[in-house]
Amino acid sequence: MDLHIINVIIGREYMTRVKKKSFLLTTFLAPIFLAAVMILPTVIMLMAEDKGKEVAVVDESGIVLPYMESNEAVTYRDCSTENPDSLKASFKELGLDALVLVSPLDSVLKTVTVSAYSTKPMSVDMKESIRSNVNKAVEEYRLASYDIDGLKQIMEDVQADIPVSTYTLEDDGEAKISSSEVYMFVSLILSVIIYMFIAMFSGMVMQSVI
């Protein structure tokens, strides 16, 4: 192909594609937008961190409330004698952020059901805290129901949580501490970025061909 024709084609593509506002906006703003999309969830999570939350607990089982331990982030308030519907209708007046309803104890299955209500979507940390406390209460109740001396201590003794330290070996045989989770996370981010750029510029190429 004549070099002059190639130059004409390149010049035409430059004028019709590269100089377009859409190309410039896509080229410079797309990476910023992608970074914002990846960072925004973390920022929202940090902003939604539980601080000084007031949570009312209506415990009809009689076994859960002692395990709902207050801390700097969450204060649990015993409202077992209150009407749940009245509490739901008076959230703001009572200064509540959430309401936890624990059902009466099922003596056959040795379990309870739990419902949580809040004016805003409940954070993952608060939900996990409630779930963990309820699970602990039910587990303690089940252990006590077997009426075996020292059963609780036996169960604690057999529990294991063994961490695994990972290392990578250098060419000289030296071991270096590594974290597979970090590598996996970085790989995932880079894969998403590569995919976005390929999709973006493939679309531009197809438009220029058409």
TrEMBL record:
ABC-2 type transporter transmembrane domain location: 21-209
Membrane topology: Multi-pass membrane protein
Pfam families: ABC2_membrane_3
Molecular functions per Gene Ontology: ABC-type transporter activity
Keywords: Membrane, Transmembrane, Transmembrane helix
Domain of life: Bacteria
Gene3D superfamilies: Periplasmic binding protein-like II
Transmembrane segments annotated in the record for this chain: 22-48, 182-206
Localization per Swiss-Prot or TrEMBL: Membrane
InterPro entries: ABC2_TM (IPR013525)
Record GO cellular component, one term: membrane
This protein's name: ABC transporter permease
Species per Swiss-Prot/TrEMBL record: Candidatus Cryptobacteroides intestinigallinarum
